[in-house]
Amino acid sequence: xxxxxxxxxxxxxxxxxxxxxxxxxxxxxxxxxGVRDLLLAQSQGQTITLSDMDLVLDQVSPxxxxxxxQQMSRWRPGALVQPHPKFHTCDLLWPxxxxxxxxxxxxxxxxxxxxxxxxxxDIHQDLHRRDFTINAMxxxxxxxxxxxxxxxGQGDLQRKSLRVLHERxxxxxxxxxWRGVRYGVRxxxxxAPETVAQWHATLASGVYEYWRQQPGQAPALQTRLRAELHYxxxxxxxxxxxxxxxxxxxxxxxxxxxxxxPALERSLRTASYVLRHHPHRHRCLTELxxxxxxxxxxxxxxHCLDLPLAAxxxxxxxxxxxxQLPALPALPVxxxxxxxxxxxxxxxxxxxxxxxxxxxxxxRNYLQYWSHEHPPLNGKDLxxxxxxxxxxFRQILSRLRSAYLDREITDRTEAIAYVQRYFPRVSPGQ
Length: 430
Ligand code: ATP
Description:
This protein is α+β, with helices and mostly antiparallel strands. It is built from 21 helices and eleven strands. Strand 6 and strand 7 (117-120) form a beta hairpin. It starts with 7 loop residues before the first helix and ends in an 8-residue tail after the last helix. Bound molecules: adenosine-5'-triphosphate (ATP). Adenosine-5'-triphosphate is lined by residues 32-33, 52, 54, 130-131, 135, 173, 175-176.
């Protein structure tokens, strides 16, 4: 019995859910990744705790979702409950478990890469809408113990094979390839030859290129693809996944000239390390990836992926900034600062991750040190030296800062001497 490989507390929770659904006269199944992971646990003789569960209800009224969600949050308090009545689903989120509750449904795609149209269906049809055979299995909680496996997902798990369910699968939803690569890297699986052939045929048909140019109409090439990129960056083996996607020609879904080159990988590695504790690391990596699209198309691609407006703006400005960078090594520090000051730090970091050698060092010095340096005198000091506040103040402070950055002056005494030399005070009456 597969559930024997599940943590006993989670098993007891599922049993309680099964009893409640039985009392409603319906059926309930664990589906998707939970079944796959239990089969893997069984093959290794291990017990697992799921951090993510997908439950499908069949033969119940749509109200059953809300009722069951309420009961579940009583049995296991502390859930954040997010119902989606229009789709007959409900997400329950505990600190240690994300549970997705849904009515069995069928999905049809009005055109490639669209959001699917959802209609109620039974558990068998529900399994036909899924991505890979290894995720298209359902384990009955009530009726208990039944394993539905219409596409031989168990066989594919044993063969370590990722197989889509039908030949239009990738046209319907290109994000499935990204999902497949994630599973492949995580579990050591390979795409089945016919699945690779289906992917290449879909790519060659030009559907992605066509639908990518219809903003807002192909979420699987836009917002949903962006979400997949974010999952990719969360993987420890994102470099392996990025290379695999390159070998499959998949980056063309974002732009025909985007490739996972050694230069791109190096930039991403640097950024990933520097930003390892940054709360928006994944967003920054996606922005950096898009910066490897030819300059004229960066903004359009960022807009299409629905990156934050600030990121779209940065990507549009990057080319202008980068035309200034080759001149920097020949300039004194004060002029480097004047050149870089008009640009916001996030844009400069983006440029830094793309650069190497001298220019990268200059950008790093600017961002970490020079941009924060203040001259040894401030406005109050100038007043004490007898200067009157006014337009000259700003000029003196700016000259002082330049002199300080260029190490013409290094301390307060030298700064006072500098001011008195270059800005002698005019005594009243002179
Ligand atoms: P993970 O272990 O990464 O959470 P999972 O298989 O549980 O893997 P989810 O993203 O939680 O993945 O999705 C749950 C299930 O929903 C999948 O197993 C799959 O059956 C189905 N599914 C999710 N996304 C798609 C998709 N784009 N196309 C088809 N089926 C999908």
